[in-house]
Structures are given as C-alpha cells and as structure tokens.
Specification:
It is a single chain. By secondary structure, this protein is α+β, with helices and mostly antiparallel strands. Helix content is 27%, strand content 21%. It contains 11 helices and 14 strands. A 5-stranded antiparallel β-sheet has the order 1-2-3-5-4, covered by helices on one side. A 5-stranded mixed β-sheet has the order 6-7-8-13-14, with helices on one face. Strands 9-12 form a two-stranded antiparallel sheet. A hairpin with a 4-residue loop joins strand 2 (42-47) and strand 3 (52-59). Helix 2 runs antiparallel to helix 3. The radius of gyration is 24 Å and the shape is globular. Bound molecules: iron/sulfur cluster (2 copies).
Amino acid sequence: MAKQDMREPIETGCPDPFQYMHPVSRKNFGLWKYHEHPRPGVLLHVAKGGDKLWTVRAGTQRILDVFTLRKLCDIGEQYADGYVHFTIRSNIEYLVADGSKVEPLIKALEDAGFIVGGTKNSVTMISHTQGWLHCDIPGTDASGVVKSMMDELIDEFRNTNMPNRVHLTTSCCQINCGGQGDIAINVQHTKPPKINHDLVANVCERPSVVARCPVAAIRPAMVNGKPSLEVDEKKCICCGACYPPCPPMQINDAEHTKLAIWVGGNHSNARGKPTFQKLVAAGIPNNPPRWPEATAIVKRILSAYKQNARDWERVGEWIERIGWPRFFELVELPFTKYHIDNWRGARKSLNSSSYVRF
Ligand code: SF4
Ligand code: SF4
C-alpha cells in the first residue's frame, strides 16, 4: 500500500493530560523543588522558580451521581481555580495557586458534607471495584462495603495518626480486578457453582467455560440427554471464574458468599519489594447494609497497627517484624486450617495452556 493511502491510526487512549492541568502545574512540569504537608488533606508543592501550588483532597464514594459531581465542580469553580483531578482512590483534588483560598475551600467542602483528608500517614479512601454497576460476577456490591466502613473510619481518614499510609481495598470477587492493599476486604465464594443443566446448552459456549477454569475442574458432560457441563468439586477452588461466561453456573448466594480479609499487600517497589497480601480472616458474614463483622475486624487490625508499629512501618512490614503468631494474638483472630496454603496443584492442573481439554 502506498504510504499516502495508509489510514491514520485512531487514537483511543488517554487524551493529552496537559490541556487539563492547572496552569501552574503545566508551567512547572518537571521543575518542582519540594513538597510539604501543611495539614491533613492538603499538600503544598513549591517549584524551583518559587511558584506554589496547594492541593486540597476530599474523599468521594467513587460511583458519583451527576448531582454530587456538579456540586463538587461548583465548589471548584467558586472556591478553587476551576481545576480538579481524581486520584486512583476516588478522592477529588482541587488545585489552587493562592494559599488564602485553601481554608475557605476546605470549609465549603466540609459544609457540603465532604471529608477533607487522606494524605500522608492516614487511612486512605478505600479503592474498590465496580460491583453491581457494570460487572457480571460480584457476590456483593463493593461500594456498599466501602461506604459503611469509611463511615466508621472517618477520623482515620481525616487525621494522620497511623505509623505510615494504610491503603484499604475492597473487591466483590477474588479473581479479577480484586483488591490488593495493606488491608483488603474481598468477597469469597465458599461452594462450587450449582449448574442449571436445562440452560447450559442454550446459554453457554462450553469450550470457553472449560477453558476459563484455572484448575481444569470443568468438563463437558451429557445430562438428561442434553449437552451440559460438570464440575469436579474436589478440584474446584470456588473462584467464580466460570460464572461470567456461563450464568447457569450460579455461584453467588446469600448463605455461602462470604467476605475474607487479607493484609500486607503492596504493589509498589519504591522502598522494598512488592508483597502479596495474606489471608487473615475468612468466612465473615456478607451482611449488608453495614457489614458490621468485617468492619469490626478491620478496626481491630488498624488499632493494633497504630499502637504497635514503629514509625514508617507499613502493615506488612510490621507483621514481618513481630511475626504472624504475635499478629494473630494482637488482633484477636483465630488461626485456622484455612490460613495454610497447601495447594500444590499448579504444576499439574493449573490451566496455563491455550488448549481446550475435553
Ligand atoms: S472484583 Fe470481580 S466481581 Fe468485582 S467488579 Fe471486579 S471482576 Fe467484577
Ligand atoms: S472456574 Fe472456579 S468456580 Fe468454576 S469450576 Fe473452576 S475453580 Fe470452580
């Protein structure tokens, strides 16, 4: 094909961010000298040329209705310089170049019911997954857990009393966009899927369902003369991966869908190696609308961490130092057989090839 006939690529990625940046950010891109933390919820960046830019952070519930979004934007127009951005933990940040605007902006946010905080060594806003809004496998709605839990942790978000930052996450299953953080509250399925054989043949593409299982526990089968599927329940790890491509493999239910709490995860390799989180409480009732049992455990972990960790230790580092037996003692959680990872099937049964097995 001649070069002049070639079609221009269609760019569908992120738009150029510079057009949305505060003019002071744009002017000083790559030229910042240092930053300070004048009070919880506020950061001050100082550029080499002397320019200053204040950032005021307020928590949001992430899934925002249009009225709340308009209210937040109106506050930005009236009290800030009209520039905002959202953090990955669903906080809104207002940028102002004039320090005298900071206090009126905080007051306007608090008068409207928003909480300013989430910086430095606070408990951050919980990052969470999509839940019922647009996913097909949630066992519960992560946003509900977030709302009820943050209602109880509001003072830890507003203040900076923790030994270091605490990232909380929730997710509504344990396999896909599931949470990973200092403390993660994740949905846990506890039984294999229940198959409605009358529907499988019409609804599910069986090879894709078979291929989806991470432990090769699903096989095609004929049931009552109809093509269907069967699950080897000894192999099944109750992950829920088969449910999205095949809704007749129902895995959620009010009784068996539970919550589990994991601790010590860290994505970053800034100061140490990234770490996997580890299970500390399982089978917690999935109890809407306030999830009191899960919240009580998270509060116990936070309180033990606050009282016992050294300055700058993250949750995982603190546990590594004191040892897991002491951690379980301090947070008053039982150590059970479910905490022991004895699964050795990966080599033999992990579905790591692209072959479809029949
Ligand atoms: S965590 Fe799981 S159920 Fe929740 S939105 Fe992500 S993929 Fe869906
Ligand atoms: S995909 Fe997950 S839930 Fe479904 S059969 Fe396999 S292990 Fe069990």
